[in-house]
Protein backbone atom coordinates (compact mmCIF):
# COMPACT_ATOMS: atom_id res chain seq x y z
CA UNK A 1 0.00 0.00 0.00
CA UNK A 2 1.22 3.50 -0.77
CA UNK A 3 1.39 6.45 1.54
CA UNK A 4 -1.79 8.20 2.58
CA UNK A 5 -2.40 11.49 4.34
CA UNK A 6 -5.01 11.74 7.09
CA UNK A 7 -6.45 15.11 8.09
CA UNK A 8 -7.62 15.40 11.68
CA UNK A 9 -9.23 18.01 13.90
CA UNK A 10 -8.77 17.84 17.66
CA UNK A 11 -11.37 19.98 19.48
CA UNK A 12 -11.17 21.31 23.04
CA UNK A 13 -14.11 22.53 25.08
CA UNK A 14 -14.45 24.78 28.12
CA UNK A 15 -15.96 23.11 31.19
CA UNK A 16 -16.09 23.65 34.94
CA UNK A 17 -12.85 21.62 35.11
CA UNK A 18 -11.13 23.83 32.56
CA UNK A 19 -10.25 23.01 28.97
CA UNK A 20 -11.02 19.38 28.11
CA UNK A 21 -10.10 17.29 25.08
CA UNK A 22 -12.98 16.08 22.91
CA UNK A 23 -13.03 13.23 20.39
CA UNK A 24 -10.71 13.83 17.42
CA UNK A 25 -12.36 13.78 13.99
CA UNK A 26 -10.90 12.59 10.71
CA UNK A 27 -11.68 15.05 7.92
CA UNK A 28 -12.06 14.19 4.25
CA UNK A 29 -11.43 16.98 1.80
CA UNK A 30 -7.88 18.03 2.56
CA UNK A 31 -6.19 20.68 4.66
CA UNK A 32 -8.68 23.48 3.88
CA UNK A 33 -11.60 21.31 5.04
CA UNK A 34 -9.69 20.45 8.24
CA UNK A 35 -9.00 24.11 8.97
CA UNK A 36 -12.63 25.06 8.30
CA UNK A 37 -13.94 22.39 10.67
CA UNK A 38 -11.42 23.42 13.34
CA UNK A 39 -12.60 27.04 13.06
CA UNK A 40 -16.24 25.96 13.52
CA UNK A 41 -15.48 23.67 16.46
CA UNK A 42 -13.38 26.34 18.17
CA UNK A 43 -16.60 28.19 19.07
CA UNK A 44 -16.88 25.99 22.19
CA UNK A 45 -13.25 26.46 23.20
CA UNK A 46 -10.59 25.73 20.63
CA UNK A 47 -9.35 23.27 18.06
CA UNK A 48 -6.26 22.26 16.16
CA UNK A 49 -6.08 20.87 12.64
CA UNK A 50 -3.24 18.57 11.67
CA UNK A 51 -2.22 15.93 9.17
CA UNK A 52 -0.27 12.69 9.29
CA UNK A 53 1.24 10.98 6.26
CA UNK A 54 2.42 7.41 6.16
CA UNK A 55 1.90 3.82 5.19
CA UNK A 56 -0.86 2.24 7.31
CA UNK A 57 -0.02 -1.33 6.30
CA UNK A 58 3.58 -0.89 7.46
CA UNK A 59 2.58 1.17 10.51
CA UNK A 60 5.04 3.89 9.54
CA UNK A 61 3.95 7.52 9.86
CA UNK A 62 5.76 10.84 9.76
CA UNK A 63 5.31 13.31 12.60
CA UNK A 64 2.07 15.26 12.62
CA UNK A 65 2.07 18.51 10.66
CA UNK A 66 0.15 21.28 12.39
CA UNK A 67 -2.22 23.00 9.93
CA UNK A 68 -3.83 25.52 12.25
CA UNK A 69 -4.65 26.48 15.83
CA UNK A 70 -7.98 28.15 16.58
CA UNK A 71 -9.34 29.54 19.86
CA UNK A 72 -8.14 28.33 23.26
CA UNK A 73 -5.92 25.25 23.13
CA UNK A 74 -3.34 23.83 25.53
CA UNK A 75 0.17 25.22 25.11
CA UNK A 76 1.38 21.77 24.10
CA UNK A 77 -1.20 21.44 21.29
CA UNK A 78 1.37 20.21 18.74
CA UNK A 79 2.37 17.40 21.13
CA UNK A 80 -1.29 16.52 21.62
CA UNK A 81 -1.75 16.34 17.85
CA UNK A 82 1.06 13.82 17.54
CA UNK A 83 -0.33 11.76 20.41
CA UNK A 84 -3.88 11.83 19.03
CA UNK A 85 -2.63 10.63 15.67
CA UNK A 86 -0.98 7.84 17.57
Description of the molecule:
Strands 1, 2, 3, 4, 5 and 6 form a six-stranded antiparallel sheet that branches. It is built from two helices and six strands; from the N terminus they run βββαβββα. It has one domain (4-85). The chain has 86 residues and is of the alpha+beta class. The mean pLDDT is 88.
- Low-confidence sequence ranges: none
Characterize the largest beta sheet: strand count, sense, and whether it forms a barrel: 6 strands, antiparallel
Compressed to H and E, one letter per element, the order equals: EEEHEEEH
- What's the mean pLDDT score? 88
Structurally, the number of domains stands at 1
Q: Give the class from helix and strand content and strand pairing.
A: alpha+beta
Rg from Cα: 13 Å
Give the CA-based shape: elongated
Query: Level of helix content?
Result: 10-25%
Kindly report how far apart the N and C termini lie.
Answer: 19 Å
Number-wise, the strands total 6
Strand content: over 45%
Count of alpha and pi helical runs: 2
What labels would you give this structure?
86 residues; alpha+beta; six-stranded antiparallel sheet; 2 helices; 6 strands; 23% helix; 45% strand; elongated
